[in-house]
Design goal:
By secondary structure, the chain is α/β, with parallel strands linked by helices. It folds into four domains: about 150 residues, P-loop containing nucleotide triphosphate hydrolases (Rossmann fold); about 55 residues; about 90 residues, Helicase, Ruva Protein, domain 3 (Orthogonal Bundle), CATH 1.10.8.60; about 200 residues, Ribosomal Protein S5, domain 2 (2-Layer Sandwich). It is built from 22 helices and 27 strands. A seven-stranded mixed beta sheet has the order 20-21-19-18-23-26-27. Strands 5-8-11-1-12 form a five-stranded parallel beta sheet, with helices on both faces. Strands 3-2-4 form a three-stranded antiparallel beta sheet, with helices on one face. Strand 26, helix 20 and strand 27 form a beta-alpha-beta unit. Helix 2 crosses helix 13 and helix 21 crosses helix 22. The longest helix has about 40 residues. Its main location: membrane. One of its GO terms (cellular component) is plasma membrane. ATP-dependent serine protease that mediates the selective degradation of mutant and abnormal proteins as well as certain short-lived regulatory proteins. Degrades polypeptides processively. Belongs to the peptidase S16 family. Archaeal LonB subfamily.
Length: about 675
Amino acid sequence: MTADPPSDATSEESESLKKQYDTTPSTAESASTAASAVEPEDATDLLGGLDVETSEEIEIPERLVDQVIGQEHARDVVTKAAQQRRHVMMIGSPGTGKSMLSKAMAELLPKESVQDVLVYHNPEDGNRPKIRTVPAGKGKEIIEAHRAEARKSGQFRSFLVWGLIFLILGYSVLVSGQLLLGVLAAGIVFLLFRSTARRSSALVPNLVVTADPDSTAPFVDATGAHAGALLGDVRHDPYQSGGLETPSHDRVEPGAIHKANKGVLFVDEINTLDIRSQQHLLTAMQEREFPITGQSERSSGAMVKTDPVPTDFVLVAAGNLDAMEHMHPALRSRIKGNGYEVYMDDTTEDTPEMRRKYARFVAQEVAKDGRLPSFSRAAIAEVVLEAQRRAGRKGRLTLEFRNLGGLVRVAGDVARSEDATVTTRDHVLQAKRRARSIEQQIADDYIQRRRDYDVAMIEGSVVGRVNGLAVMGEDSGIVLPVMAEVTPSQGPGSVIATGKLQEIAKEAVQNVSAIVKKYSESSLHERDVHIQFVQAGQGGVDGDSASVTVATAVISALEGVGVDQSTAMTGSLSVRGDVLPVGGITHKIEAAAKAGMKRVIIPAANLQDVMVEDEYRELVEIVPVSHISEVLAYALDGSPDVDSPLGRLLEIADTVFDGVGRGGSPSPQ
């Protein structure tokens, strides 16, 4: 028999929280409920009052900076940095608009005179080519002039040489009768001609950097570039003598730092550049010029080094949080000393104005792709709903637009495959199912395999076994059972946990042991508590969201009281027994519903973050709790002894909302 629920005070607050959940706007329905379309007034509300029938009616700004959604702080910084030509470092999650802001910065840079860069042969030292900069567009004119002159000179020499060859052959046949000697002499003349022709070709310069004077400032994406692509290189020449070699200036290749002169150099995942490349990048930023040399010491290009080439660019470095750990400190100091550091937001406030911008985002993606049907109003509203859901927080919208844009494109592809003229809400629902992440597909397969092999338990009562909830990746929930066993100890009692726990998870287990020790007094000194995370996988367990699950399993094992297997739970636990909020709450609830659970216990503070799909909402009862005693009251079967640790814990449920027993513990944050 299930334990009695908490006191009236507890029940009243829980019911109040449940009512808040019931009034939360619904999220995207599944494909199975696709027939019931979003009501027109609901769609209008989700579009922030925007009255359009399709995405074609939504006006798209011309400037990239005006197309950026959210990230107001980053956009302001980029605008100021462009005006003053400052460097910028952007740190944040992938797909939050770093590259788009970088391209926008190139449009915002003050108009400057871009340059063409020419490399000339150095007659004094062929391995030291000369550099000349000219206004943009002039480089091609200079090259054509040199080539025309070289062609005229070559044609004249060819006429003379072939005339001389025919004269030699004629003389050897008609006069001397020495044909072999005549052929040999003609061959020598031909080789001499080829040698002089190559030397004359060295007079034609090599145009390594060219720019359009009428376009915006150059934007060069150097993400993942190796040393040669970033800093420039000199091609290897296998023919280095005998008149067959290619002049060194013709083998010079510019790097991204040279192509970005007077523009923007964008480097994502800046920490993946090797230290040597980062040092040279720093030099190019400081000196605003950098010579080109061969990057491989085994290449003939290693002997070549040009005069310094202009590198007056604005650097936009980007990366995730770990980028700062592996970034050259001097390079980061240079950016901070002459620029800005920006942290990109993951979510933005859910307001009518922002919803209108998300509708515009759909129109932007359709226009950018160029092959997708326009989206109906209901389809756009469904995308906005998905943005709410992916934010994972009440009143927020996700700013990870790359993944959201992927959903738009898949929905459009589905519509095209059906020869539809407009992408409907049903197409978006199908796209959500088809565009599942790898983690989601693994999680679904994981749940199915557990059912096939009877690993999952969703009925009955078992002592020391609790169905916990975890997240795989960023958007996939799984049911992760936790088992506990209490055995006599041959020495001092200890807590032994298995399942490849990471540091945070280990600390969470220690917090749980503190709670158990508090209410069990000295009973654990002579016992070992074994905790197992069943089938945790190769990655192990990270985070503290299993704290509530572990505590319930240990207390159940200590008291010999069974746990309702149709109940799943998640939540962090303080050392005083408070249930604190965790991440991924929506995905965890949906995982419990897929697994066949009937009840999910979650932290009360997370109730506002629940954005469960309608197909799962009616399958599970969501129970918000604030203290471990409430968790036990809902999850355990049977009635423990009054003087037992569990009995003392359950007594707290009668006073938890009356201010007694909490001892001034902080509320869940």
